[in-house]
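lol ok so funny story. i was supposed to be doing the assay writeup but got distracted and ended up predicting the structure for this chain instead. priorities right. anyway since i did it might as well share w the group, maybe its usefull for someone
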Amino acid sequence: MANHDSWTIGVIGGSGLYAIEGLAEPEWLDVDTPWGRPSDSLLRGRIGPVRFVFLPRHGRGHHLPPSAVNMRANIDALKRAGCTDLLAISSVGSLREELAPGRFVVVDQFIDRTVHRDASFFGPGMVAHVSMAEPVCPRLSLFAAAAASLAGAEVAEGGTYLAMEGPHFSTRAESALYRQWGCDVIGMTAMPEAKLAREAELPYALVGMVTDYDCWRENTAHVEVGDVIAQLAANADIARRLVVELAHALPERREASPIDTVLDRSLLTDRRHYDPAMVARLDAIVRRVVGARAE
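and the output, tada:
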């Protein structure tokens, strides 16, 4: 498991970002989890003293649609690989005029409109309720915003991400509704990814790369995949530089985060009523807290 005094950053790459170049000692790792196979093998390496573990969310070649991404397996695999923190880099559509294609948005809130996904590691036999009031790690988000700026991006700090089920894009009425709700960007993958990261005690930040305006603009052609792909390449180049800048910006020592111990305040089931099969399935997620309670 992770050494929390040093950084091991798990990077979840979204559409257009399927690898990270420039890693020292790179190796692809195959990881099995009790939740099934993650989206792809994990690419492990380092930049200077900072270790990175990269996972292409949709698999290399983008063969997994959003609803088919096994997010529980992805987060479990990154936890098993020793990650201390997670940085998600995701393509998003814009719900605000000022967030033009090419802008990067460091998200700080979410609205979850997904409906067909396994949203929690926990269930009968081990019940937990984690707080999602502040769903991202403010420390990692600040580092990510600074790194994106140094990488050449125009960065907006803070924004609400509407997570839709997909794979279809919004109707114009839906897009207008999400704007009324105060949403800034829209995507298909941040939920339940952020919830699962919190359950796994992994501080999580999300950098959204705007590829297009969602269909709320009355006098603009609606989004097509070809338009998105054209912007993906430019965004991905900046995203790769972002990772390098992040490695250079992180302090040598990783100070503890309150998110590292969130399960201390979240597990409700009395240990006498733990389901052994559930505990075994959750070994990577609850090992720290269950082991501590057993002492």
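The two ends are 19 Å apart (CA to CA). The chain has seven helices and eleven strands.
back to the writeup now i swear
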